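Quick one, tokens below:
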């Protein structure tokens, strides 16, 4: 299987911009959020288990998962959140690996917003790439694009893993506190490194987990 790089970053960090840039250079991309949406859409594979565990009231009128209600149920209930994760994460992983197996991309980004919580071993990642910026920039960017109040953005950030926890698991870090040109330079420098790692891994059959930045 190709080199797998876990991609994560806090809200407003620019993770989606980074993912699109790598895809434009030829990398494969698995978006675990999109997989989760498919699994919980009408007729989704996860819905029977979710309704069995949490009750039919978690369904919206159209038969899909009422995501807002589900978030409310698990926000302050650790046991409920673990039940949700135990249902969704194995299905998400299976679909992610199926997407990778079906493609010939030279290396893969797996976009995992909760990577710091679920751990790199869950996806057998070879590298972890964190898109980072100061928290005040996260707040400014999210407020600008969403119109949310600062307190709402801070609450969203507090529900995610902390910046320190994300950086602690990073093999590579992209600093997105500067200009778009600076961001693109970092991406352009990392892509050939990942291509080289992928070729070494393909030749040796061993995971690349050394030379942490």
């Amino acid at each position: 299987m190709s080199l797998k790089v876990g991609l994560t970053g806090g809200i407003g960090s620019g993770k989606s911009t980074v993912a699109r840039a790598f895809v434009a250079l030829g990398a494969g991309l698995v978006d675990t959020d999109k997989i989760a949406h498919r699994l919980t859409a009408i007729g989704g594979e996860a819905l029977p288990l979710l309704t069995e565990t949490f009750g039919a009231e978690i369904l919206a009128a159209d038969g899909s998962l009422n995501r807002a209600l589900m978030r409310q149920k698990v926000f302050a209930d650790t046991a409920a959140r673990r039940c949700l994760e135990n249902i969704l994460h194995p299905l998400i992983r299976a679909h992610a690996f199926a997407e990778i197996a079906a493609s010939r991309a030279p290396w893969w980004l797996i976009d995992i917003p909760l990577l710091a919580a679920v751990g790199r071993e869950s996806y057998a990642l070879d590298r972890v790439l964190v898109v980072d910026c100061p928290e005040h920039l996260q707040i400014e960017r999210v407020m600008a694009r969403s119109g949310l109040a600062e307190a709402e953005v801070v609450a969203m950030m507090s529900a995610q893993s902390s910046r320190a926890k994300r950086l602690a698991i990073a093999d590579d870090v992209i600093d997105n506190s500067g200009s778009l040109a600076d961001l693109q330079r970092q991406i352009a420098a990392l892509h050939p490194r990942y291509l080289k790692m992928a070729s070494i891994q393909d030749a040796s059959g061993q995971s690349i987990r050394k030379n942490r930045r």
